[in-house]
Write a structure and sequence with these properties.
Elements: E1 10-11, E2 15-18, H1 25-32, H2 35-38, H3 53-65, E3 70-77, E4 86-94, E5 99-106, H4 115-130, E6 135-141, H5 145-152, E7 157-165, E8 173-181, H6 191-208
Parallel strand pairs: 5-6
Antiparallel strand pairs: 1-2, 2-3, 3-4, 4-5, 6-8, 7-8
Helix pairs in contact: 4-5
Bound molecules: coenzyme A.
Length: 209
Amino acid sequence: MDLFDEMPHIESKRLVLREFVSSDADALNRFSHNQRIYRLLPTFLYEQRYNDARVVIERTRAECFDTKESILLAICPRKDPQKMMGIAEIYAYEPRKPKASIGYRISRRYWGQGIATEVAGMLKSYLLDEVHMRTITAHVIRKNIPSALALKKNGLFRLYPGVWEDWGQDKPVLVDKWIYKRRWGNQGPTQEEIEKALAAIKQTQSQSA
Ligand SMILES: CC(C)(COP(=O)(O)OP(=O)(O)OC[C@H]1O[C@@H](n2cnc3c(N)ncnc32)[C@H](O)[C@@H]1OP(=O)(O)O)[C@@H](O)C(=O)NCCC(=O)NCCS
């Protein structure tokens, strides 16, 4: 199955990741206007494109899914699938590799309960097992430790640390690129090996400059 053949509906024991519906509008409005949630995120996320969350929900299928730009899913408790706890996202799909990126943002009141870790795991399993991706990536601002830990616990490696990216803010931001490759499984380089190799490259570069 291709990633965009059908809208994912992903369940774990505790959570459901499902398509947004019109009754999510009030919760999404509060969520997407909360600066504490968006402090360490790009300024161009789809849920913030329109001021009114009803418009976001109405247009997300046509403007994200049908164009194969991204997939936005509401994170909900399995016991109460009407209640939105956050957003999970799949984006930057490259069918030839095949590769996709994952993202998540959680309501403040649910932080620290392992939700991001679980959502990253659910997205990873879906992408590997259901739509047969070979590579999964995630971009995280360097100072976002909880997000980095959620990825690390799911076997992603911080393969490209310290890349400057344009996240729509006044200045570029320092981002780490995390990667999972199917063919490595959990056998990627250790963080120490990555740092050591990068330090050696930097040293060679400064010697030849
Ligand atoms: C970052 C974010 C997604 C983490 O979500 P979460 O559900 O609280 O994360 P988890 O509970 O799965 O925690 C992940 C790890 O971070 C740790 N952690 C949680 N909050 C922390 C904090 N304030 N400081 C340090 N570590 C923290 C947890 O202990 C856990 O590590 P452990 O399993 O070794 O104990 C959430 O804070 C959020 O939505 N922030 C705003 C949006 C955002 O930044 N999204 C990510 C963009 S890349």
